[in-house]
Structure formats: C-alpha cells, structure tokens
Amino acid sequence: MSSHGFGAFIEVESSQNSSEGHSIPIVPQRAFPKVYHSVPHGPGPIELDNLQWGKKLNGPHVQESGTTTPSGYQTPRAPNDLEMSRAPSPTNDQDGVDAMQSFSNPPMNRFRMLAVSLLNFGNGLNDSAPGALIPYIERHYDIGYAIVSLIFVTNAIGFILAAFFVEALRARVGRARTLIVAQILMTCGYILIICTPPFPVVIISFFFLGLGMALNLSMGNVFAANLQNGTKMLGAMHGSYGVGGTIGPLIATGMVASGHFLWTRYYLLTLGVTIFNLAFAAWSFWHYEAESGQNLLSNVEHTASRTQNTADGETKKEGQFASMAKSFKSKTVILGALFIFAYQGAEVSISGWVISFLIANRHGNPSAVGYVTAGFWAGITLGRFLLSHPAHKIGEKKFVYGVVVGAAIFELLVWQVPNIIGDAVAVSIVGLLLGPVYPCATVIFSRAIPRQEQVSGLSVISAFGSSGGAVAPFTTGILAQAAGTFVLHPIAIGLFAVMLISCARPLSATPQRRNELIDLTDIQPTPITHMSEIESAMAESVSKFANEVIAPKVREMDENEAMDPAIVEQLFEQGFMGVEIPEEYGGAGMNFTAAIVGIEELARVDPSVSVMVDVHNTLVNTAVIKYASTELKRKWLPKLATNTVGSFCLSEPISGSDAFALATKATRTDSGYKISGNKMWITNSMEADFFIVFANLDPSKGYKGITAFIVEKGMKGFSIAKKEKKLGIKASSTCVLNFDDVEIPKGNLLGDEGQGYKYAISLLNEGRIGIAAQMTGLALGAFENAAKYVWNDRKQFGQLVGDFQGMQHQIAQSYTEIAAARALVFNAARKKEAGEDFVRDAAMAKLYASQVAGRVSGLAIEWMGGTYLRTQLLGSMLTLHRYGLRERGYRRKDVARQQDRRYLRGNKQHPVDDDCEVAKGPVFNLIRLLLD
C-alpha cells in the first residue's frame, strides 16, 4: 500500500495473490490513475474528470466556548461554519519557480529584456527615418508622394504575412531561432537598400524589413507582457523603440542634408545594429524554453497547447491556420488589431508627412524642419519611459482615453495655428501623449486573451494592426498628391477617434480575463463537470504536486499538528496561492473554477493543505481584489501571490453562525482606527502575516456598523493566543486572536466604513463553493483508497471483498453520489462566473457535498475493516463523518429560504432583499441564514 497520505495511516497485510485473476467490472475505472504502483488501468466508460489517488482525510473539531458573552445585540448560537470548516495547510515542490517570471528571475531575463529592447531600438531606427528621407527619395528617383508611399504598403504586407506563420515558426524552432530568422530577413533588406537599386527593388526591400520587424515585435511583446509589471516592461521595451525613433531622423537628416552622403547610406547604421542584435538575441534566448520553469502558468500554457488525441490514440498538432482562424473569431483580437491599426497609422503618418506639411504649408527650410520628426519621436520616447507607470496608477482605460483626446487637441493646433515653432512644439507634445499608449494597449489586450492563444492573438494584433502604419501613410500620400499635405491632420484626428471607439470594449473587459479563460462554446454541450484546457491543466498540475510533494509529508504534519514551512513556500512558488490574482500583480490570472479545481485536488491528498489554499484564495484574495483600494491592491496582491499567507477573521467566541453579533469593536483615532476584541476558530492563524478583521465601528447602527480592516502580523497589541486541539485536519492552524487596542492606519481600511457585513456575505457565498469542493475532494480521497483496498487486498471467505455483490452496490452508490455532488459544485462555480445568482446553488452544493463526504468516509471505514486500520485514521475519518452531518441544518435553511423567495404569492418580498439589507425588528434573525 501507499506509504503516504491515507496509506500512511494504514497497515495492510496484502494477500499473496490478491490481484490475480480478478477484474474490476463495476467501479468506473477512471476513478483510478492509469498507472499506480506499476499496475496499469485503462479508461472506463464513466469519468469523474481525471481522478487521482487522494490521501489523508481529516475533519474539523467543534469546540464549545466558555468565554464571556459579548455585548452584541444578538445571542449567538454556534461558531461560524465557514470558519469551523477551514484549516490551513501549504504545499511544496522542489522544481518550482515563480508563478510568473520577473525581470530578474531567472537571471537571464535581464539580458533578454535588453535584447528585446535593442530589437525595438533597431525597429525605431528603421521606422523613423523615412519621414526625414522622403523628400530626398522623391528627388533621387524623381517620383511623387503616391509612388513613395508604396514602401509603406510592402512593409505592411510583410507584417501581415508574418502573422500567419510566426506561432508555427516559434513552436517549431523556438524563440531564439525565430529571432535569428527575423534578423536575417532584415539584413537582406538593408543590403538591398544600401546598394542604391532601382526604386522597385527598394519597395521589395521594405517587404523584408516589415517581415523581420513583425517577428521581432511579436516575440518581444509576448515576452515582456508576461513578466511581472508587464506595463513597465513593455514601456521600457517600446521606449527603446522611441529612442531609435528619436536618433534616426537626427542622423538621417544630418547625413543627407550635408550633401556628402546618399540617402541609402543611412541604412549602414541599421545594418550594423541588426547584425549585433542577431548575435545578442540568439545568445540570450537560446535556453529560454528550457528555463521556462515548472510553474503553474507554464504548465497551463504547455497543457493548453498540447496535442490532442485522435480516435486511434495518435496525436496531431493544431495547424497554424486553424490557430489564426481562432484568433480572427475573437472580438478582443479584432478590436485590438483595429486599435493598433489606428495608432500605428496616426504615428507613422505624422512622423512621415509632418515635414512635408511644414515645408509645403509653413514654408519651412527642409534642413531645419527635418529635425521636427526627431522631436516627435523624442516625445514618444519620454512618454513611454515616464508615463507608463502613472498609467498603471490611474488605470489604463482612463489614461488611454485622456492621452488620446489630448493628442487630438494638439494635432488640431498644428493644423490650425500657422506658426512653425508652435507647430514643432505641438508635434512633440503629440508624441509625448502617444508614447505610452502602445505598451498600455499591448498589456491590456494580452490580459484579455487566454494565455495559450497569446502568441497567435498578439501576432494578429501587431501584424494586422501595424499595417495601419502603411495604409494610413499611403492614403495620406495619395490625398496629399491631390489636395495638399494638410490632409495629414484630419486623417490623424479621425484615427484618434477610431482608437477611442475600438478600445472601449477590450479595456472594460480586461478585468474579466479569468472568465474569458472558459471556452463556453466548448463547455455548453458537454458534461457540466467538463473542464476547459486551462482548468484541466490546473487539475493536472495540482494533482502532480500534491501526490509527489505533499503526500509524503501528510502523516508527519498531522502528527506534529503543524504545517511544513517548505510546503507553504512551494505552494507560492507553484502559483497555487494566487490563482485568481491578476497577472500584473504576480498571480495566475485564472478563473474561479480553476481555483475550485485546485482545492478539490488538494483535498484528495491532504484536507489541511486544501483548507489553507481555499481560505487564502476564495476569501482573502477575493476580498482584496473586489474591495481594496488601488493602493492596497498594489501593496498586498503581489505579496499574497508570492509569499504572504492570508487569514479571514470573522467568528468570535459566541459569534459564529450569528456572525453579525460581533463584539469586536473599532474606534476612530487621529491616525486611523483602534481595534479591541477577540476572534476565535480562525484558520491560517499561525502561518498568516495578513489578516482581514471584521469589527463594529458603530454598534448603534447594528450590523450596518460592521467594517473590514487589514491587520498585519506584528502590530502592537495584536497577538495569536492558543491553538485549538482538533481531532482532524490537525496540520491546519485554528487559533484564538486577541486585539488589545491595535492601532490601524487609515490606509488599512478595506473598502468603505459600514460595508463589512455586505462584504462578508458576498465572500462567504463564494466560500461555500470552495468548502463544497473540499468535501468532494475528501470523498474522492476516501473512496479511491478504500475501493482499491477491497478490490486488491482485503479478503473474506476466500475471495476479495470487492467481488461481493453487496460491496459492489455500495461502491456504485458512493461513486454516483460523488459524481452528483461534483456536478452541483461545478454548476455553482459556473453560475458564479457567468454573473448569475448562485447563492442557492452554493448552499445546495455545500449541503449535499458535506453529506456525501460523511457517508463515503463512513463507508470507507467499513470497507477497510477494523483489523487493518490504525486508531489515528479511524479518528480522523469519524471526525470527518460528524463534520458532514453538522453541515445539513444550516444549508437546508439556506436552500429553503431561497425557495421561499421564489414561491411567495403575489409580490410579497422576503424581509432580506437581494443586496442583504435587513428589515427592522424580529426579522433581523433571518439575516443569519445567509451567513451559515
């Protein structure tokens, strides 16, 4: 038998021939792993979605309180079942790296960031020069605006073509070789130009340049956007583009204005930069794939892009055109491409034609006004370096709207104010305002695209979007030939308007990225427990980690009644503690169901770890994401995702299920608030450094005075008292907390004053789904181990117990109930994600799943038999069985109350309305039902 998890508590005398000649006809075979102790099992006809062997099973202990009665105005009856059902526990993995790579982790990322910045510097040198060189190209070849504009068209064709094969190329040869191909293409283009060929060859050379730059841009955007602080990283990368854009016109104008150099000699500089970039990018990215790390995000990306099984078991990869087609169906990708199309069109049109406008309409000197383009690119550079950080503080949506409107105003001034100096300054300001728009938009759209589709999606956005840098200047050239160069300005202002319109939807939808990870078209026609690729990857990653890392330490942690700190550390490293935290804060940015899947997988191996992860994700992280200020989010979400355990402090000695009878009080002070009181049955107390504490700021208002605060470990007056002795989930710390005039700064107020009761209700409703997932995980762990034992080891009357029909009926019934409970859990999670009312569904899931956990754990004891059980396992399973029983009453009240609302005759409304406002008088007691 297993030497860890449940098996660690079991001593079994295996029969010598227990597995010989016996089939497993009744239980769905998918309940067993495909290989367990070198014994293969094939898939069965009925599935519970990738079940793995679960391990230790424990339940919480309910302890009566002998403390004095608080001054709350309601008499509490029992501890809060959410707090009573939680216990902390972490996980560990020896190969984990940060859930999200950063600038310095792994160390080579510093050089990679420098490499992509240099690639963009080279792109900037290339893109900015035509604006200064166009008058000289026209003179050299004796051609007009319309013909010169063809270089922008072929450049755009190169960009568009790259979108069709960039992902296939990257998947086949890796990032390093893809970047090598890009530099070779650009080298060919530059060599052709330097030879001063006929103009048709120049047009072809710009095609090669567009192709190479598109590959550079795609690889760089995906790399930088997926680092921590992606906005800053992209700002630095595209700021380098602006540096090149600033230097390019200065050098080009200085060379050709002197009369000593042909316009083509400028491209000797870009050729040298490209050759250097070829060597440096290849070196820095050569081992990128090998260093991607065995973390949650990389595992998810790998699993989501894996080959899919065909009917005969062989595999095949999705073709690049199928991937492209999927990107074209995405509204986010389409609107992103439209946004970048308008942005690039405005940027290149202004830089390419503003000099011609100043010469023709303002009678400027070509050798002098040639430097105006450099001012424009200098503005872009400063904007990207200086304004990207404020954009994150203000909020990308508001910021982008503001700077685009500002750019349109200054572009109008250039058009209408006939002053060449003023025009030059205004053009520079337009560049300053436009500078941070591109990196901000790239981050926004990358977050809105599922991770496994980012390369193809961003390639479509950058390729087709960047074609605007050809179409708009070409159109401007055609119209300028017919009407004059003043047409630049109405075209630019119109493109700004397109940016404002197209950015509205994706920007507002960006916070919903974790919901977009669910492919609803894939889920709807399939079983409700079907998982998306992201969720399947999550289940696989957590299951592997739990069985390989947590399971060997389950017994030791249970006996020591303490979490292994190494496991807690590795839970963070694997990304399991920040499942729903957005990626810009260092989290995984996944959906709610992915978190539920992970909680269930952990509960199958160790309930203590599952409880810790559940409380941290569904209560603490969710509270900060939904209700914290921007400053608190920036301060705490990165910590909660990477190294800080959180705790949810609601229950008190006689304020459990009657959670609104809080005795803990908060008073205002000059510097903030002061908290006094006690909390009891608090999960994660020993491991946590971050505590969300509910206290009554104004008892005269009753429950409407309840307010949420953030208390940090180590604050004066805050202490962790005794640790509760429990019969089960012993590794999870459940403690009493004392608050003796704890000073809280104003900035640690969570949300608004007096809104704590609403926050608690909302969070507990979501938390019930997490508890239900714990129960199904516990039931699966007990079922899997016991079923394996009766079918392989335990014999009675000369045959395996699993061969008795009565035993087979019990196993079939238990498995059916587990499947039904899981369906309720997944249904509640899906409804929550869809924005539907899920309160009743969450209550039903918790009610039924706890009942099933109790029944299955009790049966598991019977199946395994007292002879082969150690007392420790028996006590733990009996505790779990009692835990399952105690859940019934509270959840039945919740379900009944939801039905009461639906079937009251006429227009009668329940005293507790949907936003949890409470009627005065005796009906206040009804509010407690929502907190159970």
Automatic annotation (TrEMBL):
Domain of life of the native organism: Eukaryota
In which residue ranges is the amino acid composition biased (Polar residues)? Answer: 64-74
Q: Which CDD domains match?
A: MFS_FucP_MFSD4_like
| InterPro entries for this protein | Acyl-CoA_DH_CS, Acyl-CoA_Oxase/DH_mid-dom, Acyl-CoA_Oxase/DH_mid-dom_sf, AcylCo_DH-like_C, AcylCo_DH/oxidase_C, AcylCoA_DH/ox_N, AcylCoA_DH/ox_N_sf, AcylCoA_DH/oxidase_NM_dom_sf
Pfam families membership? Acyl-CoA_dh_1, Acyl-CoA_dh_M, Acyl-CoA_dh_N, MFS_1
- Which PROSITE patterns does this chain map to? ACYL_COA_DH_1, MFS
Q: State the UniProt keywords alphabetically.
A: FAD, Flavoprotein, Membrane, Oxidoreductase, Transmembrane, Transmembrane helix
How is this protein positioned relative to the membrane?
Answer: Multi-pass membrane protein
User: For this UniProt entry, which segments traverse the membrane?
Assistant: 143-166, 178-199, 205-227, 239-260, 266-286, 333-356, 368-387, 399-418, 424-445, 457-480, 486-504
Q: Name one GO cellular component term.
A: membrane
Q: Which cofactor does it need?
A: FAD
Name all Major facilitator superfamily (MFS) profile domain ranges. 112-514
- Localisation: Membrane
Annotated region described as Disordered, given as residue ranges: 56-93
- Family according to the record: Belongs to the acyl-CoA dehydrogenase family.
Q: What is the name of this protein?
A: Major facilitator superfamily (MFS) profile domain-containing protein
